[in-house]
Amino acid sequence: METTRKHIFRGELSVPGDKSISHRGIMLGAIANGTTEITNFLQGADCLSTISCFQKLGIAIENKGSQALVHGRGLHGLAAPSQVLDVGNSGTTTRLISGILAGQPFPSTLDGDASIRRRPMKRIFTPLSAMGAHFQCQDSGCAPFTIQGGNLRHIHYRSPIASAQVKSAVLLAGLYGDGITRVTEPVLSRNHTERMLAGFGADITSEGTTASIRPEPKLEAQSIHVPGDISSAAYFIALGLITPGSEILIQNVGINPTRSGILTAAVAMGAELTLLNERNVSGEPVADILVTSSSLHGTVIEGAQIPTLIDEIPIIAIMAAFAEGATTIKDAQELKVKESDRIAVVSENLNAMGGKVTPMEDGMIIEGGYPLHGAHIRTFQDHRIAMSFYIAALNADGESTFDDRSCVAVSYPSFYQDIEVLMQ
Ligand code: S3P
């Protein structure tokens, strides 16, 4: 890729549908009664993995481009799969579907790609086993594994980590429990599962960091319009902010407060961001975001903020490299077990470009203001690394090369085309 500093980025775009919400729409649609219609459904590889898993569980799903129709068969309508459920690269598919499979009276085997085979699954085995599901897995505690469900007990699970995937797995299993299941997290993680379950008619309440669900609801099919993914918008927020002379309007972005930490962090760094046309769509807050190029300065990102921007830390690190002064990111040890070890991989690539990053056990310190130059980027097939460093490369001097650019298809198949449209 040839990059120079000559481009500016101006115009409007809509980013694709939210990945977390698209997954959940398929899953809840599958166990609801009737046909759920999902519009602006994300056609990313991860969400297609969720569709294919539920098809193997006997659910008819029509994927018609940005619309998906899920012909739900009710809470007890899934059929035993005759093949391995292939979750591809998707941690969300693996962990959330396990919550549902924990309540089924048949065994299912899950497997995925090389990255999934390294990601920790004991975090869901522990609570789901306490509820009565049985797991068979190699010592690694990673995929592949087999889950035998049925006859679940209710629990109050005090999760040691703030993970929406763990919380969601337990709440989904709680649909099949024998009493009210509760999950308490150390810090609130994204709450799309709770919101969508309520929309489908489940009896679910949230108080602080505890969510509680009553079993055996009658879930009714819904029409869901998926907002644009703030995690995808994040690349354009960064691009607009760090490229002098740029102005980008990103339309229809989900701004759920459990997801919108990138906005707070960017504003703390001096970003000029304006939220327009704030509204509610399918139970989720949505807005258009106007981004104007800004002089950024360093900040500290930590504690309860972390789950609200966990997937955006690679691109925040890029913003930090273009900011004055140091940015410290801490309490983010979860970065090590994402699609790649994002502490190591962000540090390696940013330092290769001439940045100054010190990796830490639970985050990193980025000294801003060191001019970036082109480099060879190792993505480790991690979509968020590829996209973050593409944004960095567009603002670096000289050429950058990537070992793999196609992995963006996991969450944002049209990423490169959308950048082209704004480029002037
Ligand atoms: C997700 C939750 C987060 C996030 C992931 C999607 C979800 O993972 O990083 O990309 O849709 O529930 P954790 O729950 O493991 O933090």
List unreliable stretches of 5+ residues. none
Q: Measured on Cα atoms, how large is the radius of gyration?
A: 21 Å
Number of DSSP E strands:
22
Q: Which range does the strand content fall in?
A: 15-25%
Morphology call: globular
With helices defined by DSSP (H or I, 4 residues minimum), what is the helix count?
13
**Helix fraction?**
25-40%
Question: Which strand order does the major sheet show?
Answer: 1-14-16-15
- How does the major sheet shape up? 4 strands, mixed
Structural class, please? Answer: alpha/beta
- Average pLDDT works out at 97
State the distance separating the first and last CA atoms: 17 Å
Bound molecules: shikimate-3-phosphate
Q: What does this molecule look like?
A:
The chain has 424 residues and is of the alpha/beta class. 30% of the residues lie in helices and 25% in strands. It has 13 helices and 22 strands. The protein has helices spanning 19-30, 45-56, 91-101, 122-131, 164-174, 192-199, 230-242, 261-268, 306-309, 313-321, 342-352, 383-394, 415-422; strands spanning 10-14, 33-39, 60-64, 67-73, 85-86, 107-111, 134-137, 145-148, 156-158, 181-184, 204-207, 210-213, 223-225, 247-254, 272-281, 284-292, 300-301, 326-329, 356-360, 363-367, 376-377, 401-402. It has a four-stranded mixed β-sheet. A four-stranded mixed β-sheet has the order 3-4-2-13, with helices on one face. The radius of gyration is 21 Å and the shape is globular.
